[in-house]
Amino acid sequence: MSNIVTDTNEPGHNSDSHPQHQTHVQDHKPHDSISHFSALLLEKSDSLIYAIVGFCFFLGGLFALGYSFWDFGHTLYPFPTGSGATAIVAGAIIKLVSDLLLVLIIMEVLGTVIHYLKSHATSLRPFLFIGIISATRGILSIGARLSVENVNLEEFNRSMIELGVNALAILALGITLKLLGKMVEDHP
Questions:
Q1: Which DSSP letter does residue 24 get?
Q2: What 8-state DSSP symbol labels residue 77?
Q3: What is the pLDDT of residue 150?
Q4: How far apart are CA 99 and CA 107, in angstroms?
Q5: Mean pLDDT to the nearest integer, 111-128
Q6: Whether the predicted pLDDT of 40 surpasses 70
Q7: DSSP 13
Q8: Are 173 and 135 in contact (CB under 8 A)?
Q9: What's the CA angle centered on 53, arms 49 and 56, to 5 degrees?
Q10: Angle, CA 178 vertex, CA 183 and CA 124 arms, to 5°
Q11: Closest to 135 (Cα-Cα) out of 106, 107, 172
Q12: pTM of the entire structure?
C-alpha cells in the first residue's frame, strides 16, 4: 500500500504555483518472508504438477494413437471376406476415426496445459473445442453402432435422442464460440 503525503498547508504558499510544493511517497509494505516463500513454493509446485500432467497427457495421446492403429490393423488382418466384410471394414474405419478424435481431445487438453505453463492463464476456447469434438465422437459412435448392429425400436429411438442431443451440443458450442469471438482467443 502506498500513501502520498502532500504538504500544501504552509502559510503563504500556493501549491499550484510555488516550486516548494513537496510530495512524499511512503511505502508501507511489510516484508513477510514466510508468505513470500510459501507463494513462490506453491507457484513452482503448481507449474511442476501441470508439467507432470502435461507429460502424462502427451504419453496418453501417444499410446492412444498407437493403439488406434494397432486395433484398426488387428480388426482388418486377415482381411475379412464374405457377406459381413463390408460391415467389418466400415465398423473398423468408424472406430479408427472415433479413436483419432479421442487423441485430438487429449492433445487439445495438452495444449491447454502448455498454454497455462507459458502464460499462467487459462482459456475457454480449448474447452469449447473439446466439447465439439466429444459430441462429434458421440455421433460417430452411434452411427457405427447403428450401421453394424440390428437394433430394436426402443434402442433406435434412444439412439436418435442421443444423436439429437449431441447435434444440439455441437450447435450450442459453435454458437458460443462465435459469439464470444475474440474473448476466447488464445493470447500468445
A1: E
A2: S
A3: 81
A4: 13
A5: 88
A6: yes
A7: -
A8: yes
A9: 145
A10: 45
A11: 172
A12: 0.68
CB 60 within 8 A of CB 109: no
Grid coordinates given for 159? 439412439
The owner of cell 490393423 is: 73
* CB neighbour class for 105 (10 Å; exposed up to 12, middle 13-18, buried from 19): buried
pLDDT, the chain, mean? 82
Q: Cβ of 17: how many Cβ atoms within 10 Å?
A: 7
> What are the C-alpha distances in Å from 69 to residues 61, 82, 99, 165?
13, 24, 9, 30
Span of 2-16, 26-40, 95-109 with lowest mean pLDDT: 2-16
DSSP for 27-49, please give it.
Answer: E-----HHHHHHHHHHHHHHHHH
With contact defined as beta carbons under 8 Å apart, do 32 and 25 qualify? no
Counts of helices then strands in the chain (DSSP H, E): 4, 2
Stated length of the chain: 188
Cell numbers standing for residue 122:
487459462
- The count of other CB atoms within 10 Å of the CB of residue 79 is 8
83-87, long-range: CB < 8 A, 24+ apart: 87/147, 87/148
Contact by Cβ (8 Å): 103, 61: yes
186: cell is 488464445
Could you tell me which of 92, 110, 98, 82 has the C-alpha nearest to residue 136? 98
